Amino acid sequence: MPSRIFVTGSGFISGLGNNVQENLTSLLNLRSGIGPIRHIDTVLKDELAVSEVAMTNDELMRYAGLNDQSAYSRNAMLGIIAASEAFSHAHLHLHKGLRTGLISGTTVGGMDECEKYYQDFLTNDSKNRFIDIYDCADSTEKIADHLGLRGFITTISTACSSAANSIQFASRMMNAGKLDCAVAGGTEALTKFHLNGFNALKILDKKPCRPFDASRNGINLGEGAAYLVLETEEANQRTGNPVICELVGYGNACEAFHQTASSPDGTGAYLAMKKALDMSGESPDSIDYINAHGTGTDNNDLSEGRAIERLFTGKIPYVSSTKPFTGHMTSAAGSAEAIISILGLQKGIIWPNMNFSTPMPELKFSVAAKMIRDLDINLVMSNSFGFGGNNSSLIFKKYGIH
Amino acid sequence: MTAKNTIYINGLGNVSPQKTADNNRFLDEVSRVESNRLACFEPNYRDFISPDILRRMGRLIKMGIASSRICLEDAGCRMPDAIITGTGLGCMEDTEKFLATLIRNKEELLTPTSFIQSTHNTVSAQIALLLKCHNYNFTYVHRGWSFESALIDSMIQLKNGRSVTVLAGGMDELTNGSFEISRRLGLWRRKPVDTFGLFSHPAKGSIAGEGSAFFLLSSVPSHQPYAILDNILTFSLSNHNKLLPSALSSFLERSGTTIGEIDLVVCGMNGDTSSARHDKELTGLFLNSGIAAWKHLSGEYMTSSSFGLWLASMIMKHQVVPEAAVVRSMGDRPIRTILMYNHYLNLNHSFILIRKP
Fold first, then answer.
1. Does residue A402 lie in a domain region?
2. pLDDT at B240 over 80
3. Are A77 and A97 in a shared domain?
4. Where does a domain end: A239, A274, A301?
5. One domain, residues A203 and A254
6. pLDDT digits over A104-118, tens only?
């Protein structure tokens, strides 16, 4: 019999704020993090809108209390800040006897420093200390060191579903009896590398993104990090942590359609959501809200919208994409949006799909354009889809509901 | 879903610096070179991939697809229930290509192909795409634990009954750029060396390598499985002494075995004096077991343990340690239990235990 998996902590840094409370305040005040590029030195500076974390690298270092003699990528610093918040939230530093794992998702790794020093790496030894931090595992190792975690740690990279998959894998490790609790999520700093990659794919919108709108024209990228603390029911009895909610279902499927595009009928999205729903044992009608992947590209929103229509044949839940707030946080999107969904679950709020005005003619349903308050919300679903058709869906349930 | 306890290795596919792509051969002709880097013997990719797709595909993707196809065919599996890969650095060739163009062109006139292929999950996604496999698909990217994480996930998938067959693999490619950059960090021998003298002439640095090895793991044995994948552990050691022996004994105890029952230790020694300490400590605990090694055959890379598991599985099936892999002979002892030990740069340690089916 698998153990119940409880969420008992969260940490979140994004363009909306440096911790969960600041993110929540921005969401409640309909304040988007999207604006002009301030930190990255790129020729696209005046062309693109992004959601950057407000602090510079020096400020992040001071904020996180780090020693600047060591090499830290922006990715690692964002990860350390969000994971530390989650870790402290669940008072895990007090519970030494628990087998606590760290599972983190990222794709750009230390590319932010590598792209500055690549020529130096190849021709001289002046920047060698930044070589070691290029790979994806570096940020995870730095977070583990910072939190004093010496047990199981690993890194997942499935592009934009990395953080959602970290949460799934953490849960499976706990159910397999290999961990008592876990810090799971993802981190991704903006880099010239992926800003230019998405730009070359011609899927970035210069204006604020408009997911599920007939006039949608692409993505605004964002950056940040978000982590959940997950505990088994047994571990929770030992920590005594208040349960925020329960992770009751997750699904992972591969679209196997195209390396970057989604299929027109949304097979991968449908399968991921269906698997999550089947695992939760809940009926489609009982899902109250879907935090959609909703990137704002022509392709994703049509594909995901059709998959939602296919799975939810009766009542379609409230649907919104919160990417107009945070931007597309790529490898951190899954855990960031899980936290946003959970905040909605706790507060009885359906987050609005900002910048929405005209429904897509291809879809029968329309997204939630305005914030809805004072609802009784029991079950929320959060979708994350990545390059390679790596699609994932998570379902969280209010604690104590049967 | 019913819990399954035994996991079989039903098929293998290995593209490496040795002629391993043909499963009917087992290191009968070994490549011994004077070099500080090893490159794969690559099969004719047209045997596995249609020419129109092949043209644009990065090298690691080609290596991954070829080795996974060999593996699926070997196991007689057409559609795995899950595809789980581990890669330390992913598609380096495409990453470097996009990065170099970005710098050279000052962010102008970029084409997306190499960016699309640069993400670490490209290999497992392309395998799924060519198979039209919509099932579970995951990629782990944690240095010397990338392949091990993929195996841990695979074992969970099989044991909880969610999958009956899992295609699991580890892969990394060596490019000129990544070789040069890691050479600056002192990872490799400064001058070309006789690869077969790697252990008898230890010095600073190892030899760089690459490869892609896949395993078809299943809760149902094929008519002649290679081995039983019994247990796996990833762990780290602080500088404190005696931690390795205690990690070993608790791993063996949890696996229901003892030092005396280990017939062969397949050890990831790499000839680098700065990382020999743990290998010596570990092999020193096994007085009566045989010892075999693989990094003089594959070179060192973050997922070289996938070559190590290939070697261990082939040894189990053929009940012979090829001469090229012998560090200490085990005489005529039958091979029932093999312990694999590896670590990457003294940081990411792992044990893998396999048994005779």
1. no
2. no
3. yes
4. A239
5. no
6. 999 999 999 999 999
| A306 min Cα distance to partner chain B (Å) | 18
CB nearest A125 (choices: B110, B117, B184): B184
Could you tell me if A202 and A295 lie in one domain?
Answer: no
- In this prediction, residue B2 carries a pLDDT of 54
- If asked whether residues A284 and A176 sit together in one domain, one would say no
- For residue A158, list chain B residues with Cβ-Cβ distance below 8 A: 121, 137-139
Residues of A with CB below 8 A from B142's CB? 136-137, 140, 153-155
In chain B, which residues have their Cβ closer than 8 Å to the Cβ of A41?
A: none
Q: Which residues contact B139 (CB under 8 A, 6 or more apart)?
A: A156, A157, A158, A390, B84, B85, B86, B87, B120, B121, B123, B124, B150
Q: Give me the number of domains chain A comprises.
A: 2
B134 closest CB neighbour out of A136, A258, A268:
A268
Distance from A21 to chain B by nearest Cα, in Å? 31
Q: Considering A202, A219, A239, which residue would you say is the last residue of a domain?
A: A239
Domain extent, residue A71, equals: 5-239
pLDDT given for residue B1 in this prediction: 46
> Six-digit token pair at A58?
């020096």
Average pLDDT across chain A, whole number = 96
**B230, amino acid identity:** D
List, as one string, the DSSP characters of A3-33.
PPEEEEEEEEEETTBSSHHHHHHHHHTT---
What are the backbone angles phi and psi of residue B47, rounded to the nearest 5°?
-70, -20
Answer yes or no: CATH 3.40.47.10 is held by domain B8-218: yes
Cβ–Cβ gap A253/B156 under 8 Å: no
Whether A226 and A278 map to the same domain: the answer is: no
As a whole number, mean pLDDT of residues A350-361 equals: 98
- The fold of the B230-355 domain, in CATH, is Peroxisomal Thiolase; Chain A, domain 1 (3.40.47)
Beta-strand relationship, B337-344 and B264-267 = parallel
Which of A155, A194, A201 has its CB closest to that of B140? A155
Is the Cβ–Cβ distance between B26 and B16 less than 8 Å?
A: no
pLDDT tens figures, B161-188: 989 999 999 999 999 999 999 999 999 9
The HSE-up count of residue A152 (CA atoms within 13 Å, CB side) is 24
pLDDT of B315 above 60: yes
Chain B residues with beta carbon closer than 8 angstroms to that of A175: 160
- The answer to whether the Cβ–Cβ distance between A201 and B142 falls below 8 Å is no
